[in-house]
Amino acid sequence: MTAVVVDTNIVFSAIIGRRSRIAEILISSQNIRFYTSDYMFDELKTHHGKLKKVSGMSDKDIDIAKYELFKYIHFVTLETIPKLYWRQAEPLVADIDIKDLPFVALSLYLDAYLWTGDKPLYAGLKAKGFCNVISTGEFKP
Fold first, then answer.
1. Rounded to whole angstroms, how far apart are CA atoms 49 and 68?
2. For the chain, which residues make up each domain, given as ranges?
3. What integer is the mean pLDDT of 69-85?
4. 17 band by pLDDT with thresholds 50, 70 and 90
5. What's the CATH architecture for 2-138?
6. Is-contact 37 103, C-beta < 8 A?
């Protein structure tokens, strides 16, 4: 089974487009186990207003969408990730976006792909030789 770490923008997109390709991949991929950091809870809370505005959904509908999606994602606490992986991840994201550090560290720890819709992160990681980063377009239909 393939392990894939999802970052917040993927979940954000799946909440907004509950019938989107991203949501479909999360819900119907049988040979993939999806993971994320519990840091995602903080990010979704921070951007709740934006999520509500962009989606046009009520708080209740957002909570329902999150509940439905979270059934398919395994959450890992930040404390579980050994310091070695944090040290390896930091130089990879330091000049791109330090907020992505937990997701990159988790992908290193799990030896998993990092699925992101963040183009600067994707390009920056690839440029640094981090090949375990994938975009939505790289998932086979």
1. 20
2. 2-138
3. 96
4. confident
5. 3-Layer(aba) Sandwich (3.40)
6. yes
